[in-house]
């Protein structure tokens, strides 16, 4: 576990989590537009 932590810095994990969170919000927003538009 320590080897993985050394290979990947904390900043990289934070950036990855932010990208995933933003991606999910963007996908959810698009899905919401389509679901409202379908009605």
UniProtKB/TrEMBL annotation:
Q: Which domain of life is it from?
A: Bacteria
Show the Pfam families listed in the entry.
DUF6126
Q: Which residues cross the membrane?
A: 12-34
Q: Keyword annotations for this protein?
A: Membrane, Transmembrane, Transmembrane helix
- Report the InterPro entries cross-referenced here: DUF6126 (IPR046129)
The protein's name is Small hydrophobic protein
């Amino acid at each position: 576990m320590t080897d993985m932590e050394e290979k990947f810095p904390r900043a990289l994990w934070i950036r990855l989590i932010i990208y995933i969170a933003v991606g999910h919000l963007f996908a959810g927003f698009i899905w919401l537009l389509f679901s409202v538009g379908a009605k």
